UniProtKB/TrEMBL annotation:
Membrane topology qualifier: Multi-pass membrane protein
The keyword Transport appears for this protein: yes
Keyword check for DNA damage: no
Molecular function in Gene Ontology: transmembrane transporter activity
Gene3D superfamilies documented for this protein: MFS general substrate transporter like domains
First-listed, main subcellular location of the protein, grouped into a coarse class: membrane
Transmembrane segments: 49-68, 80-99, 105-127, 148-168, 174-193, 226-246, 258-277, 289-307, 313-334, 346-367, 373-394
GO cellular component: plasma membrane
A Pfam family it matches: MFS_1
Naturally occurring in which organism (per UniProt): Neogemmobacter tilapiae
The protein's name: Sugar efflux transporter SetB
Keywords: Cell membrane, Membrane, Sugar transport, Transmembrane, Transmembrane helix, Transport
Annotated localization: Cell membrane
Length: 404
């Protein structure tokens, strides 16, 4: 497993990408179990309001990611745009730290957080470029390790938050803490992001107009695959949105349990993610993703039934194993579709998450409208496995390549 870390020990750009991904993951870990609780209860948006907020923030995330991804490929100006995004993220955390309120919450989470958060996709694009100077057989492991680095903070940060909340800390404390993390992200980007035109790899402007770049993304077979890939990842999106609310309505459970549960799952995901490239499975990516979606569905189906039992903690195993497949494999799949334009490929990743989040929001709304959070998880399991199977039927192990 140490071979997975070797490129990061010798390549300063990959090392920067690893640090940035870890810090972005730390911010995500601070918010993951609590955004739904803040929206529904603290800022009184209700279940329906949270579903709308989730959909709007995801649309904003994708719009920014597409615009930024295309622009960075058009100009090969990656550093300046990364700095702008980092600064916006600092501003959003500062606003919520100084003047928390319903309007500030909506402005931050629907507009500013999505813009600043696009730095994550740009970091993956930077890593993809840096990986291009390494042997081809190492590149999948490089990207899988980077994705594992995003999950790693959930192991560290969530247990700390669990202890803090048990000690009486207010949930709004996540904003000033995240402000410090975002300042670190901005300063690292300012100090170490490679200057454009002075890298070990060639990064030429794409030469595509905005219309031509958008046409690539809207290409029928590609758009359908991105939509299907949304179902691969929607299970984790829905589970993150529901877990805090489900714990909150269960006697004997609270926010600390939700934070600990998510932390355990993320911690177990890390070794599974690192192990996947070394398995060198002789089956198509879509088959592997289908297996991962099915394993994750078991977790989603059983969670409402076992939530009030100590046996609930055993479900962290299928959640982590299934997540290792469904969270890492789509990255390589999408990057292969646009291998020559890493910024736009990052936009494809955001489009996948748009599909996942819109599906999750729809399932959340239907499930909670008809019954409750348990039904939402059951419906999510069905949609996830069904959509992943559809991708497998459409792809048959031969993904469409629209750029090289």
């Amino acid at each position: 497993m140490m071979r997975a870390f070797q490129p990061y020990l010798t390549d300063p750009v990959l090392r920067l990408a690893a640090f940035l991904t870890f810090l972005v993951g730390a911010v995500g870990a601070s918010f993951a179990p609590h955004v739904s609780v803040l929206a529904v209860h603290t800022f009184a948006l209700g279940d329906a309001g949270f579903a709308v907020m989730l959909a709007l923030s995801t649309v904003a995330s994708v719009a920014f990611a597409i615009a930024i991804g295309i622009r960075t490929d058009q100009t090969a100006n990656r550093r300046g745009i990364a700095l702008i995004c980092g600064l916006v993220w600092v501003l959003a955390q500062l606003m919520m730290s100084v003047a928390p309120g319903s309007l500030t919450f909506l402005l931050a989470h629907v507009l500013l957080f999505p813009l600043g958060g696009s730095l994550m996709g740009q970091t993956f694009a930077l890593a993809r470029l840096a990986a291009s100077v390494h042997p081809a057989e190492e590149r999948d492991a490089i990207m899988a390790t980077l994705r594992a680095g995003f999950a790693l903070p959930f192991v560290v940060i969530l247990p700390i938050w669990a202890v803090a909340f048990q000690a009486g800390a207010d949930v709004l404390t996540i904003y000033p803490v995240s402000l410090g993390l975002c300042l670190g992200i901005y300063l690292l980007t300012l100090a170490f992001w490679p200057r454009d035109g002075k890298t070990a790899w060639e990064d030429k402007p794409s030469g595509l107009s905005l219309r031509a770049a958008l046409a690539e993304l809207a290409h029928g077979p590609v758009a359908l695959r991105v939509l299907a890939l949304g179902s691969v990842s929607m299970g984790s999106t829905l589970y993150i949105a529901v877990i805090g609310l489900l714990m909150g309505q269960t006697p004997g459970r609270d926010e600390a349990d939700a934070a600990l549960y998510i932390g355990i799952v993320a911690g177990l995901e890390v070794p599974f993610m690192l192990a996947l490239p070394m398995l060198r499975l002789k089956v198509a990516r879509t088959v592997q993703m289908l297996a991962g979606a099915a394993i994750y569905a078991i977790h989603m189906l059983l969670l409402p039934l076992m939530i009030d039992s100590p046996a609930m903690w055993l479900l962290t195993l299928p959640a982590a194993l299934g997540g290792a497949f469904t969270l890492t494999l789509p990255i390589g799949y999408l990057q292969d579709l646009l291998s020559g334009r890493p910024g736009t490929a990052a936009a494809l990743m955001s489009l996948q998450w748009l599909a996942a989040s819109v599906m999750a929001a729809a399932v959340f709304a239907v499930g909670t409208g008809l019954s409750g959070y348990g039904l939402a998880l059951v419906l999510g399991a069905v949609v996830s496995v069904g959509g992943t199977y559809g991708l497998h039927l459409a792809d048959r192990g031969r993904p469409v390549v629209i750029s090289s």
